[in-house]
Write a structure and sequence with these properties.
The complex is a heterodimer of chains A (311) and B (382).
Chain A lengths: L6 E5 L5 H9 L3 E7 L3 H13 L3 E5 L8 H8 L3 E5 L7 H4 L6 E5 L7 E2 L2 H7 L4 E8 L9 E8 L6 H25 L15 E2 L4 H4 L8 H10 L7 E5 L2 E11 L11 E5 L3 E5 L5 E9 L2 E4 H7 L9
Parallel strand pairs in A: 1-2, 1-4, 2-3, 4-5, 6-9
Antiparallel strand pairs in A: 5-7, 7-8, 10-11, 11-14, 12-13, 13-14, 14-15
Helix pairs in contact in A: 1-6, 5-8
Chain B lengths: L1 E7 L8 H15 L5 E7 L6 H14 L4 E4 L3 H14 L2 E6 L14 E5 L2 H14 L4 E7 L7 H11 L3 E8 L10 H8 L4 E5 L3 H13 L7 E3 L6 H4 L9 E5 L8 H11 L7 H22 L4 H9 L3 E3 L2 E6 L4 E3 L3 E8 L2 E9 L3 H9 L18
Parallel strand pairs in B: 1-2, 1-3, 3-4, 4-5, 6-7, 6-8, 8-9, 9-10
Antiparallel strand pairs in B: 10-14, 11-12, 12-13, 14-15
The chains are: A alpha/beta (311), B alpha/beta (382).
């Protein structure tokens, strides 16, 4: 039996926990590096690493990356896996070894480069996403692809649900790549097709804002799901104040040319129907307003909602 | 010339398993008249050695440039090999004993499962026991067979249909440890219980020996799953009781032109047709479909997968189609019973199970509740 390959994982926090657990269980994990991360998560990881004889280092900011190469030289891993590590790894670190750095990107490549592919695939109403394993180079998400492991997106899936699904799946994908580097004589890979490549910047307010005039009901629901929970919902204006829609579904009833964004009816005292540009409606259940997170039932007791406008 | 790679296992109780799978595939391709196909084989032992399985597959894909790989392996090994198929943009046809749950692993467009459906047979045999009037049951299996999720299927199906599992008996896997004596005590406490039995290979012979010895002329009700109806093993099993029935995947006695063609083709090579040559034979049809589809669709895996989802063909056991959710083939299953032939066992094939797709989908909705199989090897390969 060959010796187990030693894997050092660079991560950004909780999203990588399942992978860390599985690689530790399989006795492949030799080091954990965390970029940014909350105090609580850093402490928990450091403690777990210490208890299990695994090297640990925190990289709180870009400047601290200058200490990475020395640390890796000390740990001497066979491969370095990156799972949502927030900083770009510079060439002097990548020079540790050719085809030694593998990134696990939670979206299909090359179509969904960028920091939040989970948001982008949901917003774009994709029915399938992927975890892409690729060799790293000195640019974000651009190295040769090893494979895209496809994952179905279920109807109504929110950012939070999909992130958990991907995190669970990521563990198995990471283990699959460990098996590849352990047993394979070479790792098949191919360059990314630049004609299909797109880099999505971190979403700004304009990306999370509902444009009631232009977006149809499906697009609005997809955006709401894509913003739940990380943005506390999709941004909108309601009754002249900033608000976020957290939970809503398609309400299959035409509104017969009611102006878009208008509340047309209360459904079972718990939802409001709102007219959309495609003569369909959405049924909103939970909103975040300046007064706090509220169900429609609570809001309906305070205000007369019929005829009010989202814009 | 296109190359088909096949990973062949070995088994101590189905000693010809690799040859049977290979001969089924070779004869299946031959009968289509295709002469532009080369078959390359690799031995994967019991299918439990990850390194051996991975390297054999890698060799077929990268050195032999196989267009497609066929392998008699389980879901776990398929998962191990998945990255290779994703990375090389090739299709893997898993010849699956169907001893685990089809939902145990996520699907992938590069991997299709062509199954003998032991777990679905277990699901149906438990329902059959209920329909026959038994509301008490005991699961009877062995250390080896118990390691696969057909156990979960048989017991959940029995319970969901209104039955109660009153006892479980899992015996040892060596002949010296193999015993049915504890059943006496169980049946004393829970009389009129159906024995929901999961055995394969020579365990079936040992089981029947023990039943005959411990319960001679008692005719206790025994329900079997497809692997227990494997006819080459049954020929050498003593006939133990008049009340043995269950669900079979295939039999030489299925009266169709396709089955006759299969049987005659295999017998013409001097071999006896069995479940494994059947799998090989049917895999030839699926493989040729994939190769044609790959040529038409310029190797675009998503399109090949979509075409397979709507592909149907008539095989020796009847019409076979695919379930798009799990990438599993769905094939007919048959009611069956054991009859006597000179003191030994013979299969009597009954009617085809109705609404098999609905039954399959119903079984797939069974929540796994963290139940997983820990066995890595291909089923029956020990």
């Amino acid at each position: 039996m060959e010796e187990k390959k030693k894997i050092l994982v660079l991560c950004g926090g909780k999203f990588a926990f399942q992978s860390l657990q599985l690689l530790a269980y399989e006795k492949n994990l030799c080091g954990v590096g965390i970029g940014k991360g909350s105090e609580m998560i850093i402490d928990a990881l450091e403690r777990e690493s210490e208890d299990n004889g695994i090297a640990f280092k925190s990289f709180p900011n870009k400047k601290s990356i200058s200490e990475m190469r020395e640390w890796i030289d000390t740990v001497q891993p066979d491969y370095i896996f990156s799972i949502s590590f927030p900083f770009l790894i510079p060439s002097e670190v990548l020079n540790y070894g050719q085809e030694k750095f593998i990134n696990f990107h939670p979206g299909p490549l090359p179509q969904y480069r960028g920091v939040m592919p989970i948001f982008e695939v949901l917003k774009n109403q994709e029915t399938e996403t992927a975890i892409s394993a690729h060799f790293m180079n000195s640019k974000f998400d651009e190295g040769n692809i090893i494979f895209n492991d496809p994952i179905t997106i279920d109807d109504g899936e929110t950012y939070g649900k999909l992130a958990i699904k991907l995190s669970n799946r990521m563990a198995q994908v990471a283990l699959n790549v460990v098996n590849m580097v352990q047993f394979g004589s070479k790792i098949p890979n191919f360059p990314q097709d630049e004609s299909k490549a797109y880099y999505y910047e971190k979403p700004q307010l304009m990306d999370t804002y509902i444009n009631w005039k232009r977006m149809d009901s499906d697009e609005i629901i997809s955006l709401i799901n894509a913003c739940n929970p990380w943005n506390s919902g999709a941004d909108t204006t309601f009754m002249g104040e900033q608000a976020k829609i957290i939970v809503a579904t398609i309400f299959d009833k035409p509104h017969n040319n009611t102006p878009t964004g208008t509340v047309t009816e209360i459904i079972n005292e718990s939802k409001i129907a709102v007219a959309c540009s495609d003569n369909k409606q959405i049924a909103i259940e939970i909103l975040s307003t300046e007064e706090g997170i509220m169900t429609i039932k609570q809001l309906n007791q305070q205000k007369n909602l019929i005829g009010q406008i989202f814009n | 010339m296109q190359t088909i790679g096949i990973l062949l296992p070995r088994s101590t109780y189905y000693q010809s398993i690799g040859f049977d799978l290979y001969e089924g595939l070779r004869s299946g391709i031959k009968q289509t008249g295709r002469e532009d196909i080369k078959i390359v084989t690799e031995n994967i032992g019991f299918g439990a050695d990850k390194q051996q399985c991975y390297r054999s597959t890698e060799r077929l894909l990268l050195e032999e440039n196989a267009s497609i790989i066929i392998a008699y392996i389980g879901h776990r090994t398929a998962e191990l090999l998945k990255p290779l198929f994703l990375a090389t943009n090739k299709i893997l046809i898993v010849l699956d004993a169907g001893a685990n749950m089809p939902t145990e692993w996520p699907t992938c467009p590069n991997i299709f499962y062509h199954s003998l459906h032991n777990t679905l047979g277990a699901w149906l045999t438990a329902k059959k026991a209920i329909n026959d009037g038994y509301t008490n049951g005991g699961m009877v299996t062995g250390y080896y067979d118990a390691g696969y999720l057909h156990t979960y299927s048989i017991s959940k199906s029995f319970e969901n249909a209104g039955g109660k599992i009153c006892f479980n008996h899992a015996t040892g896997y060596k002949e010296s440890d193999f015993t049915m004596k504890p059943l006496k005590e169980h049946l004393k406490k829970h009389s009129n219980s159906a024995l929901l039995s999961l055995f394969s290979g020579d365990f079936v012979q040992w089981y029947f020996n023990e039943i005959k010895e411990e319960f001679y002329e008692k005719n206790i009700p025994i329900y079997l799953t497809p692997f227990s109806f494997e006819e080459t093993m049954l020929e050498n099993a003593v006939y133990p009781s008049n009340a043995i029935s269950g669900i079979a995947s295939w039999s030489k006695k299925i009266e169709t032109n396709q089955n006759r063609l299969f049987i005659e083709s295999i017998e013409a090579t001097g071999k006896t047709p069995n479940l494994f040559s059947l799998l090989g034979w049917e895999s030839a049809i699926i493989t040729l479909k994939v190769l044609d589809s790959a040529a038409e669709n310029k190797n675009k895996i998503a399109q090949i997968a979509t075409e397979l989802h709507s592909f149907e063909f008539e095989g020796p056991r009847g019409k076979i189609s695919f379930d798009a959710k799990t990438n599993n083939s769905i094939s007919p299953l048959y009611e069956a019973s054991i009859i006597e032939n000179k003191g030994m066992c013979e299969v009597k094939i009954g009617p085809e199970i109705k609404n098999i797709k609905k039954e399959f989908e119903e079984m797939c909705q069974l929540p796994l509740e963290n139940n997983i199989s820990a066995w890595y090897n291909s089923y029956t390969c020990i």
